[in-house]
């Protein structure tokens, strides 16, 4: 596990990258990372493009605010993922434009918002289910995500954006970017392409030790 200072710096770098690429705007989105004694999470109403390492909130294992600015209101959601999935060391949530647009236009299926279209989508992202709209920070959403924390690598919150988790903050951000670009590809196709054949998906899962 990385030390606390390096995690603080990684969160700031990832936040800036996502902001500069347009995956988040204003004060939308949040990022967290697992520590041995708790978690780091971006402050409430913070701009991911202008984070400062020392101001990132720290909470202990009991969920108590220890230092930094006030934690994001999505803290409960992040904690549920970490509590259920010991392999999760980073969580990223954005309001990515094309993924939110997808929920407005209509997702492919409720249990998979996009069909398996590209090999890297299958390898790096996997199946992403839809969570019905509730206000930001609602406990019901956290409970639903907790039930899925070991089955998928992320979920799509209707009208809000993706929540992704994985082995590191950077790895999660890369998967989220892959998902956003796949949504843009799908939305840009007037005639929707067919999904990858089932055998091709199985081959990718077996060869790259992943799952759909």
TrEMBL record:
Q: Which UniProt keywords apply?
A: Carbohydrate metabolism, Lyase, Metal-binding, Zinc
Q: Locate the Class II aldolase/adducin N-terminal domain: which residues?
A: 9-187
GO MF term (any one): lyase activity
Report the cofactors. Zn(2+)
Q: What is its EC number?
A: 4.1.1.104
Judged by the first EC level, this protein's enzyme class is lyase
Extract the InterPro entries matched here. Answer: Aldolase_class_II_sugar_metab, Aldolase_II/adducin_N, Aldolase_II/adducin_N_sf, OtnC
Q: Where are the transmembrane segments?
A: none
Determine the domain of life of the protein's source.
Bacteria
Reaction catalysis annotation: 3-dehydro-4-O-phospho-L-erythronate + H(+) = dihydroxyacetone phosphate + CO2; 3-dehydro-4-O-phospho-D-erythronate + H(+) = dihydroxyacetone phosphate + CO2
Q: Does the keyword Lyase apply?
A: yes
Task of the protein? Catalyzes the decarboxylation of 3-oxo-tetronate 4-phosphate to dihydroxyacetone phosphate (DHAP) and CO(2).
Family matches, as PANTHER family: 3-OXO-TETRONATE 4-PHOSPHATE DECARBOXYLASE-RELATED, FUCULOSE PHOSPHATE ALDOLASE
Family, per the entry?
Belongs to the aldolase class II family. AraD/FucA subfamily.
Protein name, entry field: 3-oxo-tetronate 4-phosphate decarboxylase
* Gene source species: Pantoea leporis
């Amino acid at each position: 596990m990385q030390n606390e200072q390096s995690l603080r710096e990684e969160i700031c770098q990832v936040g800036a990258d996502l902001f500069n690429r347009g995956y988040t705007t204003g004060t939308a989105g949040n990022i967290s990372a697992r520590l041995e004694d708790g978690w780091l999470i971006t402050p409430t109403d913070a701009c991911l493009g202008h984070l400062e390492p020392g101001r990132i909130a720290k909470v202990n294992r009991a969920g108590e605010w220890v230092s930094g600015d006030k934690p994001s209101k999505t803290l409960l959601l992040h904690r549920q993922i970490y509590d259920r999935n010991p392999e999760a060391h980073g969580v990223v949530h954005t309001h990515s434009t094309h993924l939110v647009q997808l929920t407005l236009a209509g997702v492919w299926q409720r249990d998979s918002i996009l069909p398996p279209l590209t090999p890297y989508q299958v390898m790096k992202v996997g199946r992403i289910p839809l969570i019905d709209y509730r206000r930001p920070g609602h406990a019901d959403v956290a409970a639903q995500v907790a039930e899925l924390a070991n089955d998928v690598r992320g979920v799509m919150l209707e009208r809000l954006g993706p929540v992704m988790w994985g082995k590191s903050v950077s790895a999660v951000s890369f998967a989220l970017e892959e998902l956003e670009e796949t949504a843009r590809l799908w939305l840009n196709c007037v005639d929707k392409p067919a999904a990858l054949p089932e055998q091709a998906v199985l081959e990718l899962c077996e060869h790259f030790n992943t799952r759909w």
